[in-house]
Design brief:
Shape: globular
Number of strands: 26
Largest sheet: 7 strands, mixed
Number of domains: 4
CATH topology of the largest domain: Rossmann fold
Helix content: 25-40%
Strand content: 15-25%
Number of helices: 27
CATH architecture of the largest domain: 3-Layer(aba) Sandwich
Bound molecules: ligand MGD, iron/sulfur cluster, molybdenum atom
């Protein structure tokens, strides 16, 4: 591979962009030009219905083509304010995950010989209840826990959280959203007084300067990127990322900072803006708190100091400050390059601080905007009953507990008065033998959790592991004592909330295979078997639960009491929170795109946003002679989703992503190690090693390597370290070595 040659993802991008360009409204009701999933799609369609895509948090709407009520094909919805007739390859191929041959069709139970064998639901539920209850009796209430997800409907999340914590007496339950959004949640809560991403996608088109920090929109949120491309203001697009990503290539300015030097860079920028008096004094005085202390803090971040620490030249730093100053509508966006860091919360807040001090919030085209990952991660932030009590409430607040108990008609004492342990402490508690039973729902930690070798051993440590998934073939399901077959997206009803707080519908457009059940119905069956169904007697359908969710949000910043019913969500093209009864009276065009903080009032007790800051920490594992490279991990292509349990089922998506694990390495580093394109190399950290194909590319800087997260091996290398406030894993930095694989190297 030569200098200047494109990365694999870059090569593939034009292929699908080209296809994507053609895939607009004129093709509605036609078969996907990508071809098909596992079965040929039939043409005859007798009806269509619109629903939200089940992959990323962009929340595109897909028009599903029905034959006798069953999905036979789909195309992007044209009149939906999010995607306006576009979808990325995952959206187009969404049905293929349902048609896979390895779908779970019956519960499976591990027998005496250690083999997972099919059993009936009633045997499975007896085992579930018997084993969990006996663990609780022997080791106490806290000895069982659950790990859930940002990928099931709000109604299902609420049911799971309520059932586990109020019905089954668990204290500890967290979600894969800890791996993903916890940092943004903590940062917003501390700075704004509530977990409140302020933007609407319209802002992507209304900004004249867009700053993306640790965000590869082209690959991870392709349709949001299309919205950036639709911006008519010839905007400055600044991408802050150590790698020259697809997004960075399309930007007007790429800031290739050293990994994890964002905090220093952002404080350096604040220093420049303050020094030049390029700040909005009136907004700061009226609407914020602690600015003076922040200004004093950033005094130390002189251009020379910042340049030395970040690798960004003083000229580029100055230019960035100028661009922000010149912009009339500057928006700041961040994703996992920020959240997944041992100092992610303060880094996210350093971004928030820039927006506040320049008055770039609450107006069109502005904002400090965290982009969400999973289709319903925003729903899980409000309704999963993990980090928040249902409806964005606080477990530790007595008034909140009383309110929730009254609305749900359950005993006040049933609600725990303390927070769950965060994910990594649940894992540690398993190691210590304190947690002995675990219920995993819609997540695949044996692939996705940090420092895999330890994680797998820990999962094996459990007395009882239940995995509820669409497939019994996932890395985690294979370790289960009991597997429960779940219906997937497209086989059940409910609501998702996207990145811009827009609530949309998912619908049942197909029957789950065999005896697989929607998670909602599994929770109902568990409640019955556990003996707490009385508590949930009126949780009869997703619709019925949605009514409760509405009530639970009353008086909260995320209030949605103005949503009449599911039909209203469909009629309005999704509805952003907040949506009170007053909002419902306004014409729908007015409430199509809404942003928060237009009045400069935040959700803190005194209504002011707070500047938070702290001195940067040292990288927990710096490169050494033995492990000289910094490993970055992340999304590899627009066609691959996480642990690939779903996207690997589509031959089309498989063709668009790299089938086998590869490591991107700078040609200069490769030359020094005699590594040539496509050669097999060993990548090793202190915790483990893997074998991968070398992909030589100048898009990674010397001293850095990149491996996508989609391969099971990647997290063998990563280091368990976490942000102290959000407890989010820092997946994107650890030290590794890369060398040619010799014949005697074994995995
Ligand atoms: N195709 C596809 N799309 C997805 C997903 C998927 O699996 N596949 N997953 C969804 C989910 S759940 C999520 S959370 C989002 C994630 O979306 P993104 O966060 O955009 O994706 P990542 O590739 O994880 O990370 C973004 C960038 O962070 C950069 N980075 C690493 N370290 C640093 C650093 O120290 N500083 C800075 N500034 N940048 C750094 C990486 O080089 C990478 O390009 O994507 C969502 N969309
Ligand atoms: N090295 C590294 N690791 C990472 C990251 C990184 O950037 N680098 N990113 C992290 C991030 S941001 C995230 S969000 C996580 C994602 O990590 P995971 O959540 O573990 O990944 P998924 O593959 O999405 O797992 C979802 C599981 O749910 C199943 N499933 C799908 N739909 C349903 C349903 O409706 N019901 C049920 N019961 N099951 C269903 C799928 O088959 C799959 O097994 O990975 C994290 N891990
Ligand atoms: S961008 Fe996200 S929501 Fe839209 S079609 Fe692709 S995966 Fe689905
Ligand atoms: Mo995520």
């Amino acid at each position: 591979m030569f200098h200047g040659e494109k990365t694999l993802a870059q090569k593939l991008l034009p292929v699908w962009m080209d296809l994507g360009g053609k895939l607009t409204a004129d093709l509605v009701q036609q078969p996907s030009p990508f071809g098909i999933g596992n079965v040929p799609r039939r043409m005859a369609v007798d009806a269509t219905t619109d629903m939200i895509c089940g992959y990323c948090a962009t929340g595109c709407s897909l028009k599903v083509h029905l034959q006798a009520g069953e999905a036979v094909n789909l195309s992007p919805s044209f009149h939906y304010p999010v995607n306006r007739g576009m979808a990325c390859p995952k959206g187009w191929e969404a049905l293929s995950a349902l048609e896979a041959t390895d779908r779970g069709t019956t519960p499976l139970m591990r027998d005496a010989s250690g083999t997972l064998k099919p059993v009936s639901w009633s045997t499975a539920l007896d085992e579930f209840v018997g084993r969990f209850k006996s663990i609780q009796q022997k080791y106490g209430q806290e000895s069982i826990a659950f790990l859930s997800t940002g990928q099931i409907a709000c109604e299902e999340m609420a049911f799971l959280g309520a059932l586990a914590k109020f019905g089954m007496g668990m204290i500890h339950g967290d979600g894969n959203t800890r791996q993903c959004m916890a940092t943004a949640v903590t940062a917003y809560k501390q700075s704004f007084g509530f977990d409140a991403p302020p933007y609407t996608y319209q802002d992507l088109e209304e900004s004249d300067v867009l700053v993306f920090v640790g965000s590869n929109l082209c690959v991870a949120h392709p349709i949001m990127w299309q919205r950036v491309l639709a911006n008519p203001h010839h905007p400055e697009i600044i991408v802050i990322d150590p790698r020259m990503t697809e997004t960075a290539m399309a930007a007007t300015e790429h800031v290739a900072l050293k990994p994890k030097s964002d905090l220093v860079l952002l404080y350096g920028l604040a220093n420049r803006l303050i020094t030049h008096r390029w700040i909005e004094r009136e907004f700061i005085d009226k609407n914020t708190e602690a600015f003076e202390a922040f200004a004093e803090h950033v005094q130390a971040y002189s251009p020379d100091f910042v340049s030395e620490r970040t690798g960004v030249t003083t000229e580029q730093l100055e230019r960035l400050a100028q661009k922000i100053q010149k912009g009339k509508r500057v928006s700041f966006w961040w994703t996992m390059g920020v959240n997944q860091s041992y100092e992610g919360t303060r880094t996210a807040q350093a971004i928030i601080n820039l927006a506040l001090m320049t008055g770039n919030i609450g107006r069109p085209g502005t904002g400090a905007n965290s982009i969400t990952g999973q289709c319903n991660a925003m729903g899980s932030r409000l309704f999963s009953n993990t980090t928040n009590l249902l409806g964005g409430h606080d477990f530790k607040n007595e008034t909140h507990r009383r309110k929730v108990a009254t609305i749900l008609g359950i005993p006040y004492e049933a609600i725990p008065d303390r927070d769950s342990l965060p994910y990594h402490q649940i894992i540690e508690s398993i190691l210590k033998g304190k947690i002995r039973g675990l219920w995993v729902i819609c997540t695949n930690p044996a692939h996705s959790w940090i420092n895999q070798s330890v994680c797998r051993e820990i999962l094996k440590h459990l007395d009882f592991l239940v995995v509820q998934d669409m497939y019994p073939t996932t890395d985690t399901a294979k370790l289960a004592d009991l597997y429960l077959p779940a219906a997937g997206w497209g086989e059940k009803d409910g609501t998702f909330i996207n990145s811009e707080r827009r609530i949309g519908l998912i619908k049942k457009v197909g029957k789950a295979p065999g005896q697989a059940l929607a998670d909602f119905h599994i929770f109902r069956a568990v409640a019955e078997a556990w003996g707490c169904s009385e508590m949930f007697h009126d949780w009869t359908s997703p619709k019925a639960v949605f009514e409760k969710l509405k009530q639970l949000t009353e008086g909260q910043p995320c209030e949605i009491s103005g949503i009449r019913d599911y039909q209203m969500i469909d009629d309005r093209g999704g509805i952003q929170w907040p949506f009170t009864e007053k909002d419902a009276l306004r014409p729908s065009e007015e409430s199509d795109h809404r942003r928060l903080f237009q009045d400069g009032k935040f959700f803190t007790p005194n209504g002011r946003a707070i500047f938070h800051f702290e001195s940067p920490r040292t990288m927990p594992e710096s490169p050494t002679k033995r492990f000289p490279f910094t490993l970055l991990t992340g999304r590899g292509s627009a066609a691959q989703w996480h642990t690939q349990t779903r996207t690997s089922k589509s031959p089309i998506l498989q063709k668009l992503g790299a089938e086998n694990i590869f490591v991107e390495i700078n040609p200069r580093d490769a030359r020094g190690r005699d590594i040539k394109p496509n050669m097999e190399v060993i990548v090793e950290s202190q915790r483990g090693k893997l074998r991968a194909k070398a992909f030589l590319s100048p898009t990674v800087q010397p001293g850095q390597v990149f491996i996508p997260m989609h391969y099971e091996e990647t997290n063998r290398l990563t280091l368990s370290h976490f942000d102290p406030y959000s407890h989010q894993p820092s997946y994107k930095n650890c030290s590794v070595d890369v060398r040619l694989a010799e014949a005697w190297d074994v995995e």
